[in-house]
Design a protein that fits this description.
Layout (H helix, E strand, L loop, with lengths): L6 H10 L19 H19 L8 E9 L3 H10 L3 E7 L4 E9 L3 H11 L7 E5 L3
Antiparallel strand pairs: 1-3, 1-4, 2-3
Helix pairs in contact: 1-2, 3-4
Length: 136
C-alpha cells in the first residue's frame, strides 16, 4: 500500500493557490502499480491544480447576527448606521410598547464598530447584542 500519493498533492494544489474552506475530489479510474507512486502524485496533484485554476472563486466573509430593540423614533438612525457599515436588517417586529425588534446581519470584522456606532448615534438608547456567528 502506497501512502501520500493523493492527499498531499491535492492539499499542495489547494495551498498553492492560497485557498481554504474548499473541497477537491479526484476520482482515479486507472493507475496504481502501473503509474507508480511518482505518477500518482503527478496525476492527483495535476488534476487538482487544473480544476482549482478553472473553477470560479468567491471571497466569503464571516458574518454575525445582532439583535436590536429600538424605540420607533430611533429606527431611521439605526438604518443609517446599517448602510454606513454595509450591514443588513432582517426581520422587523413592531411591538405594542412603541419599540421595534430587529435582527441584523453584519460582516464579523464590522460588528463591533457597528454596535458602537448605533449606540453613539442613539445616545445609548439602542445597544445591539451579538446573537450568532458563522462559527456557531
Amino acid at each position: 500500500m502506497m501512502g501520500g500519493t493523493a492527499g498531499k498533492p491535492i492539499l499542495g494544489a489547494i495551498e498553492g493557490d492560497g485557498l481554504d474552506g474548499v473541497a477537491v475530489l479526484v476520482v482515479r479510474y486507472f493507475g496504481g502499480v502501473k503509474l507508480g507512486a511518482g505518477g500518482l502524485v503527478r496525476a492527483y496533484g495535476g488534476a487538482a491544480r487544473d480544476c482549482i485554476r478553472a473553477a470560479p472563486k468567491a471571497f466569503v466573509k464571516s458574518k454575525v447576527q445582532l439583535a436590536v430593540v429600538t424605540p420607533f423614533e430611533c429606527l431611521g438612525t439605526v438604518y443609517n448606521m446599517l448602510a454606513k457599515h454595509g450591514a443588513a436588517a432582517g426581520e422587523e417586529d413592531y411591538q405594542s410598547n412603541g419599540k421595534v425588534k430587529l435582527t441584523l446581519t453584519a460582516d464579523a470584522d464590522q460588528a463591533e464598530s457597528l454596535q458602537q456606532a448605533i449606540a453613539d448615534a442613539t445616545s445609548g438608547k439602542v445597544q445591539p447584542t451579538l446573537v450568532a456567528t458563522d462559527e456557531s
